[in-house]
Request: fold
Amino acid sequence: MVPTVPFPRRPPDAVRPDGTVRHWYENELGWATVPGTPVDLLTGLRFDVLEAPAEAGYAALRHLRPGSPVAVRADRMLLFVAAGSAEELPGLLDWLEWGSLTLDIGATGSGGRVEAPLPPGLARGTRGGPGEAEPGEEGPGGAGQAGHLRAAGSQGAAVWLRPPEPGCEVESSLPTLSALGGGGGGAPDLVRLVETMASECHRIRLRGRCAQPLAFS
Reply:
C-alpha cells in the first residue's frame, strides 16, 4: 500500500493577520477591499473573476500571460479577467454555441466580491508551503497541480497559483474580449480562454454522467 501524506491543517482564523492582508492589497496593488473579516476583494473595478473546476482552469492557463493573476480554492480555480467580462460571459457562451448547456463556469463582476487569497509570502509562512507555482508546476495533471490542490483543497481557503505583481498594471495582463484578432494590443484573449474552459467543463460533465450507475427498473 502506498503511504499517504495527510493534508495540511488550516490555521485558525486568529492566525490570519487581516490587517497585513488588507495593507498588501490596498497599498501594494491598489486593489479595493471590503471592510470586515476575512478580507474580500471588490470586483468590477479593476478586474472580474471567472471561476471553474480546477481541471478546466489548468487547461486554460496556456491562454494567459505569465503575469495574469490566478488563484485556487478547494477544487476550483479563480481566473482574474478584465472588468466587464462577467457581463459579457453569457453572450460569449451563446456566441461560442455553449449557451444551451449548463456549464460549471461562474463569474463575479460589478458589485461583487471574492475572497482575498493570502499574499504569497504570508501564504508560505502560515501554510507551510509555497503560495505560488514554481516553474514547470502548472501543467494539467502534473505534480504541481496535485500539490496546489492538496494545499488549498483540504482547507477551503483561496491561495495564489500566479500572484499579481506589486507595482505592475494588472489590467495589461488580463484577458479581454477586444483582444480577439489582435485588437487588444497583445493582451490575452478572453474568447479563447472561455472556449477552452467550456470545452473542459463539458468533458467533466460527460465523465460524470458516464460514471453514474445504470438504473434498472
In short: The chain has one domain: 13-210. Residues 13-210 form one domain. Strands lie at 33-34, 40-42, 48-53, 70-73, 76-81, 106-108, 113-115, 159-162.
